[in-house]
Every structure is written in C-alpha cells, then in structure tokens.
Design brief:
This protein folds into two domains: 116 residues, Nucleotidyltransferase, domain 5, CATH 3.30.420.40; 132 residues, Nucleotidyltransferase, domain 5. It contains eight helices and 13 strands. It starts with a strand and ends with a helix. By secondary structure, it is α/β, with parallel strands linked by helices. 46% of the residues are buried. Helix 3 packs across helix 8 and helix 6 packs across helix 7.
Length: 268
C-alpha cells in the first residue's frame, strides 16, 4: 500500500491507498504555521506510528504539494507554505527509505481526473482548484501539461484587476486576491469574486478551448461561489465562436490526494 500526502496551503492530509478505491486510513489536520521541512517529516512519522505502521510497510510515498515542483521533486517555490528550494523527494526517500514522488498539487489532481475522473473520456480539459490559492492544470490527450519549467499551474496569478489588491505572489490584482479561499475567508465581495473567476476561466477557454472545465477545492463551499451563475457568465467573457466547455465539479472530494497516490505508478 502507498502513503499519499496532500501538503496544502492550509491543511495537510495523509491517506493509505492506491488512489482508486476507498482509502484504508486517513488523517487530516490544519498545517501548523511556519512548519519547516523537518517538522513535516516528523509529522509524517508520528501519523505512521499512530497507525501502527513502519516505513517498511509502505510500497512508497506520493506527495501533492501546493508549490512549483521540478522534475526531481524539489519544491522550487511555495508561497503559502513558506518554502523554497527544498529537495522534498530526496528528504522523504532518505527519511523513510521508500520510493517517493512529489509533484504540484493541481498536477496530481489533474492526473487523477485524466486516469479515473471527469477527464478520462475527454481529449482536453482544464482542471482548476480553488482553495487557499487557485491553481490549474491543462490535460491534453490524457497527459498533464507542465509548462517550460513546471510552473504551468498558476491561473490564480493571472492579473484580472491591474493595480488591484496586492497578492501574496508579489504582484497586484491577481485572481487569487479576489476569488481564493484566503481572500474570502472573512466574507468579502461575492459578486466581485465570481466575476474575477469567470473572467479568468473565460480567458483560459478562449486560449485553449477545452472540452471540459473541472472545478474542485474547499473555497467552492464558501457563500460567494455559485456554479450556475459562473456558467452563465462565461459566454460573455470568452470568444463567441468557442465550443462551450462542460463546467463540472470533480466527482471526488480529494482529487489532489488521490493523484498523489497515483504518482508512484506513473513514475515507476
């Protein structure tokens, strides 16, 4: 059995399973503020001990991280976690002595959708996770597009209001500054959040014309989000000649976590 970990901007989730069926064990908690890589390793070790497991009981460890991750499993940039230049795959493999794989959270979620979820019958899909921040992944013919350096995950940093609110990435007016869970945790302007998300999705649809847009993330449970209104806004914010994409929710609550479990098979 594999250990899947979703290292998010707000929460950490660990689960035992292959990503396809029900997980055997799960642990969810808020990510401690200022958590360092050694503290993360200690947390994983403590959860395994609480489950009565040793590293040798695991087939491998797959990690979905809210970060830009290079092909060596190094966390290059993770603003919401506060890490940069962390060789996470190497640290995990050394600490636990098991095969390890690490990738960007939305790439993991898109992998799940391409193999087992809403994109398995589509030649193209856009996967968008609206959580603490907002990330995306493009799925083309069953493959997840990573971009030139692995940073093709940042629709949340598309500037939708030039000169607007300062974003945690350092720019101003990003989608994350209006439509993320972090931006709306204390309420916020629901109409502006939905308009900003619709603008970004309309621009993305105009650029790539995906068959399907798959939405997931905890912020979709906030009061501002309305799928029917979002669907109605998109035609006014994208090219009229497009084949309209299906706008759907992911069919599972944890695609990023499930994708982390699938990573090991994909990278074997």
């Amino acid at each position: 059995m594999n250990l899947a970990i979703d290292l998010g901007g707000t929460r950490i989730r660990l689960a035992l399973g292959d990503g396809a069926g029900p997980f055997r064990r799960e642990h969810h908690q808020r990510r401690p503020d200022g958590m360092t890589p050694p503290a993360f390793l200690a947390l994983v070790e403590s959860v395994l001990a609480a489950w009565g497991l040793r590293p040798a009981d695991l087939g491998g460890i797959g990690i979905s991280a809210a970060a830009v991750v290079d092909r060596d499993g190094r966390v290059v940039r993770a603003e919401n976690i506060g890490w940069s230049d962390v060789p996470l795959r190497a640290l995990i493999a050394e600490a636990f002595g098991r095969p390890a794989a690490v990738d960007t959270d939305v790439f993991c979620g898109a992998l799940y959708e391409a193999r087992l979820g809403q994109a398995r019958t589509s030649r193209s899909a856009l996967y968008v996770a609206v959580g603490t921040g907002i990330g995306h992944a493009l799925i083309l013919d069953g493959r997840v597009w990573r971009g030139a350096s692995g940073a093709a995950n940042a629709i949340g940093h598309m500037v939708v209001r030039p000169g607007g609110r300062r974003c945690y990435c350092g720019n101003a007016g990003c989608l994350c500054a209006f439509a993320s869970g972090l931006a709306n945790e204390a309420g916020g302007d629901g109409d502006r959040a939905l308009q900003a998300l619709a603008q970004a999705l309309g621009a993305a649809a105009t650029l790539i014309e995906p068959e399907r847009i798959i939405l997931t993330g905890g912020a979709l449970n906030q009061a501002w989000f309305d799928l029917a209104r979002l669907e109605a806004l998109l035609p006014r914010l994208s090219y009229p000649g497009l084949a309209r994409p299906d706008l759907v929710h992911s069919s599972v609550a944890d695609p990023n976590l499930r994708g982390a479990a699938l990573l090991l098979k994909e990278t074997a």
